[in-house]
């Protein structure tokens, strides 16, 4: 049995609590449909008192347990805080000691958006990589200078401490947790059920940049568009440098500054992303999908896909087109 708790406090965003809990519950149910011996999940809401908590948006939730009584957890979720988090941080001083105690017991902790401020305030992120909501990056950096803030990263991990930059990213994070608990097949099915548009799994999002619009280097935006436009023609990075009128060294330097990746790595991720869409939404054969993304050798395409997604293209197509829940009689 996996034990998961989410903290409750005023100004918390309900979606950063309910979405991860629902994903984990669904994963557990599907795993048990396939294997009745698969572990279930116990979900709890925790707060400093037994009083109901009014979250942002007017939703009121009642805690199941006092946060001081949390023990033997597998995962603790620290939800996102709406707007300036400092009022919540100030009021949390009386119970912040719960966080390092829970972490010390071996639990994973995932802070969503500005929920990372609570981990930072407790000193748990000192000299560790972390991220937070983009709108609070500068203030976070000033207030917590000992934290190794990663402003380009959607997800950070340091041992069992995770930070995700937004509520949208928590879905990617939970799919990663599901994969570790229940395996790749359950993770892909849950991903497809809850968020078919997820294109960047944990391995791709963690410690890397966000979308192409997260930088403002017009030359590199042009480079990225050229790679997209010429993808079926097997674009070469040397061709790209000539197309832009710059040296290969300059291209590599500026591309990495803008995206956190080399041009070649970004191109490989583009190939996998387009391949996933074709596998989801077309009946093209695997060799045709490989050709569409600029890979002539289907075995090389399969190896590339497995490296990024963790499963073969055929298995991925089967998973994303399958049903999440089998009939109860199964």
Present the secondary structure layout.
Layout: E1 2-7, H1 15-34, E2 41-47, E3 53-54, E4 60-61, E5 65-66, E6 75-78, H2 86-91, H3 98-104, E7 108-112, H4 116-121, E8 129-130, H5 137-143, E9 148-149, E10 155-158, E11 161-164, H6 167-182, H7 184-194, H8 202-205, H9 218-229, H10 237-244, H11 248-259, H12 263-281, H13 286-292, H14 298-309, H15 313-321
Parallel strand pairs: 1-2, 1-6, 2-5, 6-7, 7-11, 8-9
Antiparallel strand pairs: 3-4, 10-11
Helix pairs in contact: 1-6, 1-7, 6-7, 7-15, 12-14, 12-15
Please, could you describe this protein's structure?
The chain is of the alpha/beta class and 330 residues long. It contains 15 helices and eleven strands. It has two domains: 204 residues, Rossmann fold (3-Layer(aba) Sandwich), CATH 3.40.50; 106 residues, Arc Repressor Mutant, subunit A (Orthogonal Bundle). A seven-stranded mixed sheet has the order 5-2-1-6-7-11-10. It has a two-stranded antiparallel ribbon with strand order 3-4. α1 links the parallel β1 and β2. α1 packs across α7. It is globular. The protein starts with a strand and ends in a 9-residue tail after the last helix.
